[in-house]
Amino acid sequence: MCDREVALAFLKSSMQMVKRVVEVLMEDVGVRLEEERMNSLMGTKMVNMNYYPTCPSPELTIGVGRHSDMGMLTVLLQDGIGGLYVRLDNGDWAEIPPLNGALVINVGDTLQILSNGKYKSAEHRVRTTNIGSRVSVPIFTAPNPSEKIGPLPQVVKRDGVARYKELLFQDYMNNFFSQPHDGKKSLDFARAD
Ligand SMILES: O=C(O)CCC(=O)C(=O)O
Ligand SMILES: [Fe+2]
């Protein structure tokens, strides 16, 4: 296989896997999404290729500032260098060590909104290192821009409250990209008043 075929095969198998993971997560909150709705919720796919050069003084730089991803799930392939951290409930940062053959899966803001807060988007950041340059390849899955997102009715019924309002994903995305990363502040835009 040439590089292009390898990349396409990675994208295709990641999409199948991500869809299955979303199905399982939804089943766990008592929701079975129609095929069409599922495709609309995962209709935007984006692949980034991140390159972080070796840095002699990592403490003086920011690789990627703390943020959560805006979509449903992100599948991330990282090389062996390390530098990805996730924020724990107690506020500490834990490194996600590279494991040969493993992918990192991050919950995004949209899944937090749909699940009415049951699934929390992962706040994460990247620090550069002085041991070598690093490459990572995240695949982001997110709704179509014209898709309405909001807590799923079945979950709201069970929780007795909607913690987020309904909005167009396009508006969420515009707000997300309109300001610099600041942890999970992006979610404030969707919070119910
Ligand atoms: O490079 C990484 O490990 C993560 C990059 C990231 O968080 C992003 O592109 O959203
Ligand atoms: Fe990210």
From TrEMBL:
The Fe2OG dioxygenase domain, residue ranges: 37-143
Keyword Signal assigned: no
InterPro entries reported for this sequence: IPNS-like_FE2OG_OXY, IPNS-like_sf, Oxoglu/Fe-dep_dioxygenase_dom, Plant_2OG-oxidoreductases
Keywords: Iron, Metal-binding
Keyword Hydrolase among UniProt keywords: no
SUPFAM superfamilies: Clavaminate synthase-like (SSF51197)
PANTHER family referenced in this protein's UniProt entry, alphabetically: OXOGLUTARATE/IRON-DEPENDENT DIOXYGENASE
Name under which the protein is recorded: Fe2OG dioxygenase domain-containing protein
Organism encoding this protein: Brassica cretica (Mustard)
